[in-house]
Amino acid sequence: MTALRVSAGPDEAVAGDVLPVIASLPISLVAKASENAADLFVVHGGPDWPQRTAECLLHDLRGLLIVEPTPVPANQVPDDLSVPVVVDYRFAGNPALAAAAEAFVGWPAEGMIEIAATDQQESNLGATLLDQLATLRRVGQPVVDLHRLSWNGSGYYLRASTTAGSFVLLSAHVTSGAPPSLRVRGLAANASVELVLPDPATARPAVLVRTTPSGATTMPTLWETSHRAGWRRLHAAVTGATLTTDLVELRAELTLVNNVLPPQ
């Protein structure tokens, strides 16, 4: 199998931990110094990421990775899906989400879900909220009817409901006393699900526990970060000649986020 050539600028390489991840996948990926003749491009999710994405899609590339996008108007997201595009979130790409989605199958409408994030910078809150919404979608609990309860420099509280009708409480807290993390907890009359997602910058794995009247079950540990899982997913999409739905889903999340962001 021929390894796909990856082009990433300095900002992209740092934000997505690109070079270490590529080094861990030497059979599938190899770093390329420039965009010329590269197969896969990386776009940093800063404020101009839609423009950069559109520019990259003009190249003769085979796939695109967007690292931790920040909120922009939904209509700025390119709709050219001629190549697979994967959005590399800090938490929502963690491979443990597949098992969490199974744990949430049949989640009752009368159940509730809490999703709480910690971050070290106020400026990250918009991207954190996008990550939370993407996480809920990937565990099979996409959100509708998002409303702001409070939002300030210390974090936010939001309420929403899932498409199945479950109540959702979303929160984020800014602190320098702990590394970034994300916790999802589902509470129902006869079951609970708790998923703890660590920062990809650490070596800690995700922890998933499902509790029923029969007892608590801790799911098997997966030692892989969100960033590495995102690259494997992009490689599979490119080599399998299949398109992804990440940009379509991101556009839906942006519509919700832009309705609750505080005025600038």
Structure, explained:
With 264 residues, this protein is of the alpha/beta class. It folds into 2 domains: 4-91 and 227-258; 97-222, 2-Layer Sandwich (Dihydrodipicolinate Reductase, domain 2). The protein is 27% helix and 30% strand. It is built from 7 helices and 13 strands. The protein has helices at 10-15, 18-24, 49-57, 97-103, 125-138, 226-239, 246-258; strands spanning 4-7, 29-32, 40-44, 63-67, 85-88, 112-119, 143-152, 155-162, 167-174, 181-187, 192-198, 207-212, 215-218. The chain has an 8-stranded mixed β-sheet with strand order 7-8-9-6-10-11-12-13, with helices on one face. A 5-stranded parallel β-sheet has the order 2-1-3-4-5, sandwiched between helices. Helix 5 (125-138) packs across helix 7. The relative contact order is 0.18. The mean pLDDT is 91.
How is this structure best summarized?
This protein has seven helices and 13 strands. With 264 residues, the chain is an alpha/beta fold.
Mean pLDDT: 91
What order do the helices and strands follow? EHHEEHEEHEHEEEEEEEHH
Number of strands: 13
N- and C-termini, Cα separation: 49 Å
- Give the strand content: 25-35%
How helical, in percent, are the residues?
A: 25-40%
Q: Assign the CATH superfamily of the largest domain.
A: Dihydrodipicolinate Reductase, domain 2
Largest beta sheet: strand ordering:
7-8-9-6-10-11-12-13
The main sheet comes to: 8 strands, mixed
Please write the CATH class name of the largest domain: Alpha Beta
Domain count: 2
User: What is the architecture of the largest domain at the second tier of CATH?
Assistant: 2-Layer Sandwich
Low-confidence stretches: none
Shape category: globular
Q: Determine the number of helices (DSSP H or I, runs of at least 4 residues).
A: 7
